[in-house]
Give the backbone structure.
Amino acid sequence: MSQLPAFDPRQVPVVRVDGHLSAVAAQALTADALRARFANPPLWQPELIQERRFLDRAPAQAAVLVGLVMRDELMVLLTQRTAHLSTHSGQVAFAGGKSDPQDADASATALREALEEVGLQAQHVQVLGHLPEYKTGSAFHVTPVVALISPELALQPNPDEVAAVFEVPLRFLMNPAHHRWHRFEFNGESREWLSMPYLDGTQERFIWGATAGMLRNLYRFLSA
């Protein structure tokens, strides 16, 4: 297996948009509604659980914090990774990373990484639960840890890992009219992935790949 060639994901053709699917209802996108949903989850199936591998290495366990900041509406906390990182450089991502042996569980990994990457203190976080493991093409087996975050949070991004921290309305990401499917051909194989571009002021935040895939699973969970 060889690494995929460098490419601009924004230039990969969009083959369809899921505007025919219903958005998650506004009343389901409140802190209380999410607490109730995770306390008594419905029967559902994740849509995206594994990407085609493009790195030939041993799998590594990881976790990310799908943090929902409790402002006037719930906002998803995201980062822009710095350009020099060895994997997923420059991409939009959740705070998170590889599990350490001392981590008690996926929640511990996500909270530790969020502290290291953006300075998010654990006392501002209420973990609600986990989404199913997502296996990336770079051989990370990622557990998404969904959590509510107090609006009193004070962040200190680590400049070695994080170029920017920003928030996107959860209602925007839970509306499939903003879910775009791209198709990419490489070595005779077709790869499809999602993007959810968001205009943050005058800057486009191009949410795609694994981050978009995990958000899609959150959409399936909340709309089940």
